[in-house]
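G., the chain you wanted modeled:
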Amino acid sequence: MEQNQVQLKFIATPEKGEVSALLVRPDEATHLLVLGHGASSNMRTPLLQTISEHLADQKIATFRYNFPYSEKGGGRNSQATVTETIRSAVTAAREACPDLPVLAGGHSFSGRMTSTAQADSPINGVKGLVFFSFPLHPAGEPAITRAEHLAKVEIPMLFLSGTRDALAELDLLQPVIQNLGPRATLHLADTADHGFKILKRTRTSTEDVFAELARIVRAWAISLRA
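Predicted structure as tokens:
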């Protein structure tokens, strides 16, 4: 069960107005992750909730938030609106937990938009980016153009990707991350797909996949302070 959950509001953009956020801060939290959702979901999706709960077990606080379109309905917002919302979310998160080092990212779409924002202009106060299933390409359309902006990101990046992710074929993803050099780290979740569903019969690890991901995030986050 989530602990110390607080519902908040912040201004996404002056034109789009307020959106909702959920802050989960475990006791003795060491970091805060501003955690966005996938393209067709929202901050309350079971996937994001599960990620948040397991991160809390690892003393990582999370600030989940909606984009204007996921708050109010309608078509997806423009890239400019989405990236401005991400910057606003980080500002709101820092104000909510001014004592914690801030990381930013999200699942799929929001992770890519966070790195896009960071590549355009560094997001104030963000120490590193965390991608849960970075969407390198649409399913069935392998390409690496979506990763071109990552070369402009100068802070550490953690990529958490399933070995069965149809939106990030390994023969493309691994060279992309290798070319980014030491600032990029890749962790592969055995048999997991884009939503981190696993194949129980063939998965070699008995560890819960979300526990695994949270453990990796914590170890990586701590390494940033070394």
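The chain is about 30% helix and 25% strand.

Shout if anything looks off.
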